[in-house]
Automatic annotation (TrEMBL):
One GO process term, biological-process aspect: DNA replication initiation
Entry-linked SUPFAM superfamilies: P-loop containing nucleoside triphosphate hydrolases
GO MF term (any one): DNA replication origin binding
InterPro entries: AAA+_ATPase, Chromosome_initiator_DnaA-like, DnaA_dom, DnaA_N_dom, DnaA_N_sf, P-loop_NTPase
Domain AAA+ ATPase, first and last residues per copy: 138-259
One GO CC annotation: plasma membrane
Keyword Cytoplasm part of the UniProt annotation: yes
Family statement drawn from the similarity comment of this UniProt entry: Belongs to the DnaA family.
Record keywords: ATP-binding, Cytoplasm, DNA replication, DNA-binding, Lipid-binding, Nucleotide-binding
A Pfam family of this chain: Bac_DnaA
Protein name in UniProt: AAA+ ATPase domain-containing protein
Xref: CDD domains: AAA
Protein source organism: marine metagenome
């Protein structure tokens, strides 16, 4: 259902927008197929595109979808990529190769070997390597603090890649906090919140990036807090990054800061 709806939206936007606008903001988007109702979940390559599309084009997409479906349509957008979008070819793959889409794929280039180590991060790197060898036993939860561009995401994903290399059955999920919010909102809209909870709470390792984006989002903090506790009580590994200390993040509940 949604492929044809999205194709109709693309055709409409292509005629309404300039070529530069279409190629810059619309072409990079992917859609997650969902047969449950009149809704579209769009995936954008980064937060900037999400914000721009929400501000400038989301209503146009919504109008185009409603004209195609002849029904009121919900349109959500979050950070993600093509690997999470359901395609026709994916349905032809053997069942064993299909994994439930939770979070975003790890960047295979983010490894300990490729991480630039120095005096400022050698302790964090050593702790991360220890976590990769024995997840859930020490440094749990593991909080990585640092400024923008200092390698927090690289170090975090290095743990995930090492764990996957050591044991492919390990359930590792990497998710930006804003992505977590988007997925939760989509689950609420589609009445699939229980599935959302089960997917995250059945993980062996949860890597959550830029937790400062949870600030002010009470419902998302509530869900993350419960997921956090379930995983910790089961001795599952949690790694969190932020460009601010927890106490400096306004709008973040005290119970999360204290954890």
């Amino acid at each position: 259902m949604q492929s044809s709806v999205w194709d109709h939206c693309l055709a409409t936007l292509r005629s309404d927008l300039t070529e530069q606008q279409f190629n810059t903001w619309i072409k990079p988007l992917f859609v997650i197929e969902d047969e449950e109702g009149p809704s579209l979940t769009l995936l954008a390559p980064n937060k900037f595109v999400v914000n721009w599309v929400q501000k400038n084009y989301l209503e146009q997409i919504k109008d185009a979808a409603e004209k195609r479906l002849h029904a009121k349509t919900t349109v959500a957008i979050s950070v993600g990529d093509q690997s999470l979008a359901t395609t026709k070819t994916s349905n032809e793959l053997p069942q064993t190769t299909i994994k439930t889409a939770v979070g975003a794929p790890l960047n295979r280039l983010y490894t300990f070997e490729g991480f630039v180590a120095g005096k400022s991060n050698q302790i964090a790197r050593a702790a991360a390597i220890q976590i990769a060898e024995n997840p859930g036993t020490s440094y749990n939860p593991f909080f990585i603090y640092g400024g923008v561009g200092l390698g927090k995401t690289h170090l975090m994903q290095s743990v995930g890649n090492r764990l996957n290399k050591n044991n492919q059955k390990t359930k590792v999920a990497y998710v930006h906090s804003e992505r977590f919010v988007g997925e939760m909102v989509s689950a609420l809209q589609h009445n699939t919140i229980n599935s959302f909870k089960n997917q995250y709470r059945s993980l062996d390792v949860l890597l959550i990036d830029d937790i400062q984006f949870f600030a002010g989002k009470e419902r998302s903090q509530e869900e993350f807090f419960h997921t956090f506790n379930v995983l910790l009580e089961a001795n599952k590994q949690i790694i969190i990054t932020s460009d601010r200390y927890p106490k400096e993040i306004r709008g973040l509940e005290e119970r999360l800061k204290s954890r």
